[in-house]
Design a protein that fits this description.
Layout lengths: L2 H24 L4 H11 E8 L4 E3 L1 H14 L5 E8 L3 E10 L10 E13 L7 E9 L2 H7 L1 H90 L14
Parallel strand pairs: 1-6
Antiparallel strand pairs: 1-2, 3-4, 4-5, 5-6
Helix pairs in contact: 2-3
Length: 250
């Protein structure tokens, strides 16, 4: 490994460690830790978007984090962090929803994917800051986080929908297969009809040609027979010489 590759590997490892520390501090419920991240690693015009809200500005993001920490007992659980191309960090975490106004045994675990978008503070600077935080969760994750609805969704709704979709797919596949067979049969009938028409035309042409050949042969035979009869008549009955006519001068 060359010196350049060694430095690049060391930089990548350092960047990954730095990103992990930023993520862990950002999603902790320690005000000192996530406020420090907002202060040093967020742009002033940072954008925060979730399925239910969108806000702009680091101060507004600070207010959102403050409200979430005040309403919830437990910090999110970080499952995995993927940092790619030194520009985007994808964080898979579980949001532990346990409002302070409800009993502690009431808790929802919602899978969330947070994407942190980085960019350089200056074109020639190596310092990266977050300019967009995007939180997203799916309807499936919300349904599975609810105890009774999760059982109904997993064991009843999905099973029934699976049976319905497979049945409809089977019917559609059968219909498409039958239509393809009918189309193939129709093409075969058209091809056979076309071949039969061509054979019929060829037969008519041959029949007409044979008819003309027969007519020409018959005419030739008639012509030959006529000349042959005249010659035989000449041989059997030659013209008589009765002498000079009485009307001829003597």
């Amino acid at each position: 490994m060359t010196e350049v590759e060694t430095e690049r590997t060391h930089f990548d490892m350092s960047s990954n460690d730095l990103i992990r520390n930023i993520v862990e501090d950002l999603f902790s419920y320690s005000s000192l830790r996530w406020e420090r991240i907002l202060q040093y690693y967020f742009f002033e015009d940072v954008i925060l978007t979730t399925p239910i809200l969108s806000t702009e500005g680091v101060n507004n993001v600070h207010f959102v984090y403050t409200l979430c920490q005040a309403l919830n007992r437990q910090a999110p659980t970080i499952e995995n962090i993927v940092f790619d191309t030194r520009r985007t960090a994808v964080v898979h975490l579980t949001l532990n929803v346990s409002p302070c106004v409800l009993p502690s045994f009431l808790r929802l675990r919602i899978p969330v994917v947070t994407t942190l978008h980085f960019r350089k503070t200056e074109p020639e600077s190596g310092l990266l800051k977050i300019y967009h935080q995007e939180d997203s969760w799916t309807l499936e994750g919300l349904l599975q986080s609810l105890p009774l609805i999760s059982f109904w969704y997993t064991h009843i709704f999905r099973v029934v929908m699976g049976l319905l979709m497979t049945t409809l797919g089977d019917l559609l596949d059968s219909a498409l297969g039958h239509a393809q067979k009918m189309s193939a049969r129709s093409r075969e009938i058209q091809r056979q009809s076309r071949d039969l028409a061509l054979e019929l035309d060829e037969y008519r042409a041959n029949l007409h040609e044979n008819y003309l050949d027969r007519i020409r042969s018959w005419r030739q035979e008639q012509h030959t027979t006529h000349h042959g009869n005249n010659f035989d008549t000449f041989l059997l009955y030659p013209p008589r010489d009765d002498g000079p006519s009485r009307y001829q001068p003597q």
